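Aim 2, interim progress: modelling of the flavin mononucleotide-bound target.
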Amino acid sequence: MSVTPIEYLLSRRSVKFVQAPAPTETELSQILQAAMSAPDHGKLQPWRFALIRGDAVARLADLAMEATKRAGRPLTAEKEASTRAWLAKVPLLIALACRIDHSNTKVPEHERLLAVGAAVTNMLNAAHMLGYGAYWSTGLGTYVDEVNEALGFDGLDYRFLGYLAVGTPIQPPAAVERPDYRKFVSEWTGAATQLS
Ligand SMILES: Cc1cc2nc3c(=O)[nH]c(=O)nc-3n(C[C@H](O)[C@H](O)[C@H](O)COP(=O)(O)O)c2cc1C
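Predicted structure of the complex, ligand included:
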């Protein structure tokens, strides 16, 4: 039985542990193109992505670990070893950033960040629909200036937002139980809200 689009959306889950093969060039184009249909106030197109593939993943791991230590951030030997072991199998990282266009003062920064968040969510959903695992991480020196600069996303003109790891799930992902949306939704009918 075929899976409907809404069933894809409802079954998406993050998959951290992935391996080769990565999405093909055509599939990667679809994943990146999916980002372009995110809502975007003012059509600022603030999303920026850098592809890190193959051997470059290990180079990024080296850079991120060394820069994290140089910045005096905590990084235990265990954390470094587990991160390197994880990345050794990851075939594709997509570095994620929001470009801050300082000439535009109409759309506040948080709306630009939300547009990039929506774009990345589209990418997560596209990867899932194509049968790949994807996982958004703000580890790997995301908050270390030297890493941001090395990737071309300096802190003056960009907000660096982490990475998507993308590949083939190592284990078939188990379904996860999601909360009931009714816990988070109320209905406003126009009457004054009673404050408790
Ligand atoms: C902006 C952002 C950054 C994240 N960074 C991390 C991270 O560094 N480490 C982590 O374990 N999970 C991180 N997560 C959470 C995972 O990507 C994932 O959403 C979480 O494991 C729950 O899985 P689910 O998406 O299937 O619900 C981040 C999520 C977002 C939206």
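The chain has one domain: 5-184. The pocket of flavin mononucleotide is lined by residues 13-14, 135-139, 162, 176 (CB under 6 Å).
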